[in-house]
Write a structure and sequence with these properties.
five-stranded antiparallel sheet; mainly beta; six-stranded mixed sheet; elongated
Length: 786
């Protein structure tokens, strides 16, 4: 017996050298030179829900992880999110900026959408190089007012059988997986399946499937005998599935996880097979991505059994293969390695209380201290009776199961929701049924891969400076609205340049020529952002029509004859100050007798470099107290003023040292409240949108509006539902969405959730840590009013 563990490159060379024939084709995606070292990106989108009404928005947080390292992907900054019709027509398409594998966004469910089904796809450009990497896919439903109820259909019952290892061996005990589903792919639970032979004789009965239609049974088939598994529904419908013919001089493979520290591999073979092949070397191989473990077994008169320490194998989905002495794959079996000490899943600790106002719920979240991880999370808050949240996958199944399976099935998310013994057993049946999975050993398509899709790490800006003097001006200076993202680009011999930048739709880009001595000059040039031609989406549309995707029942129907599901049109009023150039400069506005707004212009920025200096100029007290910089009113008893930035409370020390050029407006009030108890007012700061250029530089830049950039994420807002107490709202409404919440283990993170006449809530929480740790949990929150 000889065991080894190597990377793919080593094992392929080893087998080629020893057996002097075709090297084993490891099932990787499109192998090119050292391609195994390339990242393989997997994507999960956490949607706030999956059933919508016109007038709502689809909110999402995206998580991108490397399949091999199981870490957040650092390869790509550009993530594409689109919604297609079921016929493949692209209705909406956004590019969003990904940082450390996480991003968020939203898409309006507007009048473009009518009642029915749509498909959300998400992908990176780079992953399109790999045939076996699939974009994220989720079907969503748009519902309208209907008054009929859906009844289950058993017109077409599908009964399928899957011998473990792919072969049925006569004279041996074989395990066989079962899948029993209805017309829409829903599982059928039963305890009355039975095995009969060709004479109609019952061989075995009382075979069961669980609520998702999965089950298994054991059988020792006799040579030259045929068998059927049959199911008779209470309504009289009958389904039959014939077992494949049992082979006599063949071998198969069985895998068992007894819940211990070892995985047991066993050859399934008859005594005749063992006698005929005694002394021959057979090989067990287990692989995941480019990691592989193998062990040779010399056949004796006893069935080979191999016990492997789980810590020698990668965490998650693995594939075991049995090879003949000629290195021909004989059997295969997928299994999940629940490797102890390598837990990639954590459950956060939650505590709750009603806020003092009584109209909101405060929830404190914390990662268990023993985990020591910091995770970015997203939280969908829905009514307790919601029917609007039914994703095909959680982040667990999207990133740990889906990359390895050939087809999506309803309830795939179910298998990783918990890790008890029963759930592990059901997951094992799911993988037994899967066969080779997504990567088949010996797949020839791997040799044909070509890297035609580059990784995208910004919005491409291409331009040509028509009037550049290349003897003096060799660089271009580019400043977007976010000054930290400024860039320099070198001019080519034809006066063209190219740069990748973080640019958002609606932002502006300032461009200037840079001379030898650092001088700036306003250029004449042609500018383009994004690709010259529209990208082709044929490869992505194929995933819209993916026959392996989950088949869903028609959208859930409502029994509400008179209730209108139409959403009121929502008007959003943005609190902003627009300053128009006038002959007489006005930069102070009295909003009320005690509240004044000051617009920050060129004169203020020139005179007062920081926010601290400006606040002192307008009559506020800025001083150090107990090591902290604070702002107070000059009125007795000098109450401390609250600092608010863009509507959110902020740390005073950080804000006061900001350059005044980053501020658009300062609104303040130092009025005393609380009957002379010293409760003060506030200073509200609105930050400048865009880069501030000094007046002397403005004629040296050309400004362009960005039309083809990232879609900027926005804060969640609640749709105008007609009635938050209605059955409609309880079934299909949304209460809140938190798209990007950082949660650590040292201190709790607090969030506030509004309570629109609800006594119970559902929280759907998903997230990913900096180390690739995953979070997926559902919490039912009961509310006890004060």
């Amino acid at each position: 017996m000889n065991s080894s563990r190597l990377t793919l490159a080593c094992i392929v060379f080893f087998i080629f050298d020893v057996f002097a024939q075709e090297p084993l084709q490891f099932p990787v995606v499109g192998k090119t030179e050292n391609e195994d070292s390339q990242l393989r990106e997997n994507i999960h989108l956490h949607l706030n829900k999956t059933t919508f009404i016109q007038g709502e928005r689809l909110w999402f947080t995206a998580y991108v992880r490397d399949q091999k390292s199981k870490q957040p992907s650092a390869l790509t900054a550009n993530l594409h999110v689109a919604i297609f019709t079921t016929k493949g027509q692209k209705l909406k398409h956004q590019k969003i900026f990904v940082e450390n594998g996480v991003s968020s966004g939203d898409i309006a469910i507007d009048s473009t959408f009518v009642e029915g089904e749509y498909v959300v796809l998400s992908w990176t450009n780079y992953m399109r190089n790999f045939k076996f990497l699939r974009p994220f896919r989720q079907t969503i439903q748009i519902v309208q007012n209907v008054n009929e109820k859906l009844t289950p259909s058993f017109d077409k019952i599908q009964l399928e059988v899957f011998p473990e290892g792919g072969n049925l061996i006569s004279g041996c005990y074989n395990r066989v997986g079962i899948r029993l589903t209805d017309t829409f792919g829903n599982g059928i639970s039963s305890k009355n399946l039975e095995i009969v032979n060709e004479d109609g004789l019952r061989i075995k009965n009382n075979i069961a499937t669980n609520h998702i239609g999965y089950g298994s049974f054991g059988i020792s088939p006799q040579p030259n005998e045929r068998y059927w598994l049959q199911f008779r529904h209470l309504n009289g419908a009958i389904a039959k599935a014939e077992l494949p013919p049992a082979e006599y001089l063949a071998a198969s493979l069985s895998v068992e996880d007894a819940g211990t520290s070892e995985v047991i591999l066993k050859m399934v073979a008859s005594n005749e097979f063992l006698k005929k092949n005694m002394g021959q070397d057979y090989l067990f191989a287990i692989y995941q991505n480019d990691e592989i473990f193998w062990e040779t077994m010399n056949l004796t008169n006893e069935v080979p059994v191999l016990a492997i320490n789980k810590n020698l194998l990668p965490f998650g989905v693995n594939t075991a293969v049995l090879f003949s002495p000629e290195m021909i794959p004989l059997a295969r079996r997928m299994f999940f390695n629940h490797r102890e000490g390598k837990k990639r899943q954590i459950t956060m600790v939650l505590e709750q209380c009603i806020t003092s106002s009584g109209d909101s719920l405060q929830i404190d979240l914390r990662v268990p201290k023993e985990k020591g991880a910091s995770v970015l999370t997203s939280i969908s808050v829905l009514p307790i009776d919601t029917k609007a949240y039914d994703p095909d996958h959680t982040i667990f199944s999207s990133l740990m199961l889906r990359p390895f399976i050939a087809s999506d099935r309803q309830f795939d998310a179910y298998f990783l929701e918990s890790q008890n013994r029963q759930r592990r057993f059901e997951l094992d049946i799911r993988l037994l049924i899967e066969g080779w999975g997504r990567y088949k050993w010996g797949e020839k398509e791997r040799e044909a891969a070509a890297f035609t899709f580059a990784s995208e790490n910004g919005i491409v800006v291409n331009g040509k400076l028509i009037d550049a003097d290349l003897s003096k001006e060799k660089q271009v200076f580019l400043i977007p609205d976010e000054p930290s993202d400024m860039a320099y680009a070198v001019l080519e011999s034809d006066k063209s340049f190219s740069a990748e930048m973080r640019l958002f739709v609606g932002d502006s880009l300032n461009i200037s020529l840079l001379g030898k001595n650092g001088s700036l000059r306003k250029p004449k040039f042609e500018l383009e952002t994004g690709p010259v031609v529209q990208k082709r989406f044929e490869d992505l549309v194929a995933h819209v029509h993916d026959t392996s995707a989950v088949k869903r029942s028609p959208p859930p129907l409502l029994d509400m004859d008179e209730m209108s599901l139409g959403m009121d049109k929502r008007t959003i009023f943005l609190e902003e100050v627009t300053v128009m150039e006038k002959k007489k400069r006005v930069n102070k506005f009295l909003l009320s007798p005690s509240i004044q707004a000051n617009v920050i212009g060129d004169l203020e920025i020139k005179r007062y470099k920081t926010v601290r200096n400006y606040l002192r100029r307008i009559g506020l007290l800025v001083e150090i107290k107990k090591g902290l910089m604070v702002v107070s009113s000059l009125k007795f008893p000098n109450p401390r003023l609250s600092i608010i930035v863009n509507g959110m409370p902020a740390q005073q020390g950080e804000v006061l040292n900001m350059p005044l050029s980053s501020v658009q407006t300062i609104v303040y009030s130092d009025k005393l409240y609380g009957g002379g108890r010293g409760i003060g007012g506030f200073v509200s700061i609105v930050l400048r949108q865009g880069t501030y250029l000094l007046p002397e530089y403005r004629d040296k830049f050309v400004k362009f509006l960005i039309e083809n950039g990232y879609t900027r994420p926005q804060e969640y807002f609640t749709p105008n539902y007609p009635d938050n107490r209605s059955l409609f709202f309880r079934n299909y409404g949304a209460i809140d969405w938190k798209g990007n919440i950082r949660v650590g283990s040292e201190f709790p993170t607090s969030i506030t959730i509004p309570l629109p006449y609800q006594n119970q809530l559902n929280l759907y929480i998903e997230g990913m840590g900096d180390d690739g740790t995953l979070v997926s949990q559902k919490e039912e929150i009961g509310i006890n009013p004060k």
